[in-house]
Amino acid sequence: PTTNVIMTSDHGFGATTEGVYINEWRASRGYLAWTDHARIDASTKPTVERIKDHIVGINWSHTQAYAVTPSSNAVYIKRANRSGSGVPADEYRDFCLRLRQELLDYRHPLDGG
């Protein structure tokens, strides 16, 4: 009687008919690059074979932001390393704010919803 119970779902309570492959969106915006070994089908969605080893297909020297899985909603920012790839420390905050706004501005490509 003194316990509050909250039920949530990270996938909603209904059927999913569409998906956004967020790393494909990041690649189209220049935040992520694929290696030559990454396989993409004709619709630019990751192939089934690539889902399990998704990270292997990322070209780390040309990537600034990525997700661990093809449809993940997590954002990882690659900070600059000694070789200079990634986001430099003095640009990190502005980079995050710009990426955040672009994600908030994202609309469905067919209906704008």
How do the strands and helices of this protein lay out in sequence?
Elements: H1 22-28, H2 48-51, E1 65-66, E2 76-77, H3 92-105
Antiparallel strand pairs: 1-2
Description of the molecule:
The chain is mainly alpha-helical. It contains 3 helices and 2 strands; from the N terminus they run H-H-E-E-H. It has helices at 22-28, 48-51, 92-105; strands at 65-66, 76-77. The protein has a two-stranded antiparallel sheet. The longest helix has 14 residues, at 92-105. The chain is globular, with a radius of gyration of 17 Å. The termini are far apart.
Order of neighbouring strands in the sheet with most strands = 1-2
Structural class: mainly alpha
Supply the number of helical segments. Answer: 3
Radius of gyration: 17 Å
Return residue spans where pLDDT drops below 50 for at least 5 consecutive residues.
Answer: none
Quick structural overview:
This protein is mainly alpha-helical. It is 22% helix and 4% strand.
